[in-house]
Amino acid sequence: MTSIGALGNALRRRAKRVGDILALLTLLVRPRTYFGHPARRRIVYTVFRRQFSDTGVQALSVTILVALLVGFLLVFMLPASSAREQLLPTFSKLYVLVIVREVGPVICAMILIARAGTAITAKIGYLKIFREYESMHLMGIDPVALFFVPIFWAFPLAMLLLVVYFNLFALIAAYFSLSPLDPGFGARTLLDTVIRQVDLQDALVVLLKCLASGFIIGLYSIYFGSQMRGRLHHVTQAMHNATTRQFVGVFTVNVIISVLVFSG
Amino acid sequence: MILEVKNLGLDRGEEVHLRNISFSLEPCECLVIRTPILLLGTALLETLMGLEEKVSGEVLFGGENMLDDMPSHRRLSLRRDIGYAHRVGGLVSLLNVRENIALPLCYHAKVTRGQAAFATDEVAEATGIRELLDREVDELDMVQMRLVNLARALINRPRLLLVDAILEGMKDEQRERVSSAIGYFRGECDFGVLMTTRTRDLPQTTRVLELRPDGLCAPGNLNDA
Questions:
Q1: Which of A105, A210, A212, B43 has its CA at 20 to 30 Å from residue B182's CA atom?
Q2: Domain for residue A37, yes or no?
Q3: Three-state SS for A86?
Q4: Structural domain total, chain A
Q5: CB-CB: which of A37, A43, A138 is closest to B84?
Q6: Which run of H or of E encompasses A154?
Q7: CA distance to partner chain B, nearest, from residue A112 (Å)
Q8: What is the residue range of A238's domain?
Q9: Which residue of A lies nearest to B112 if distances are taken between CA atoms?
Q10: Which CATH number is B153's domain given?
Q11: Backbone angle region of B111, left / alpha / beta, with phi > 0 → left and psi within -120 to 50 → alpha
């Protein structure tokens, strides 16, 4: 009986959590009336600008570094037997298949989780712990509308930015790695060959993965941050919980999208 | 009458924190509530604002009981007319000092960038924190945070100003600055002030009461509470 009761409790807690997360998501994506209120819009824009800078722009250096390494690695892994004239087509197929479709969105999501997801969980936790959340309520201010919404939307847009930079710099690294193997081709040739490999479906899949991953990371960061209650050690616990679920969520969504779109 | 409190009680579980609190506040009045424990004063002010859960009694502000169930937008709209100066924390760390001060004004009124800047400069000048405007919240010390809290509470020209023991730990010069800032804005809009304190009063004080866990009483009659 005890174990059945414990199982029931665990299921109830889980169901409550799912309900809370869905409720938060509803609040975050609900249309807002900022555009009729320029002063509020300025605050929202300020928070969004800062968050986008923290989340996307400041993560560019690490994204570029990882992209260069991955681009170099991809060339290194080209079959040694590839004939010189097959080098570019083989690389292009591999680049689109591996970097554009799969590795790029996942690595960028990992960077976003490590660089910004944990930071936002902690920041929102501090809002709760240092009673900033209550102070907003005392001023008659809705913190979700004014702060959480711009923070949430900064994540998918930052993901898009990071993925674009990642793909670009992986290609740059590949160009410099391929040049010694085939001195005859130029950057334009490489770019043309790669672009011919990318179709609308690839672009839509990458867009979908970026948006889905960004939403998952933002949603979990805000949810676990706002669940904190009063003690500083809850911050590390919330960061741990958020990060674990963000990793699982991002991997799952990426796999599901790839399987659904490319399995045929 | 701006505020009327009837038989207010707060139960936080292990013990009753507040009991039988009744008082009223007129416009232009400055009521100081002395408490030996500052947390008790904070609990009282937060209870008045409807932030506590296990509460009994009535808190009438603008003819409405702040403790009643009401739609959240109505509650937020009532709170718009109340300025609250926190003793600890209270500033939003996602914004800098200037943005924190302008926050309630920009949220509640459709002001232009210039109007918001003018109002922020005016209130910062009155509270003596002009040089702090471009700092981040985590760069402020405790007293500076209290002054910024006061500036933010005043910028919306509230009908009621709740001040949570912000004078504690301030130098004489800073206390005078607080007093003159409150005086300056009261001259303009005649709001009532309710301040908790342990040792420091405002010169504008019109009435003093003592707060104990078992009630509210006039100073000097603590045993009768």
A1: B43
A2: yes
A3: helix
A4: 1
A5: A138
A6: helix A149-178
A7: 19
A8: 31-262
A9: A39
A10: 3.40.50.300
A11: beta
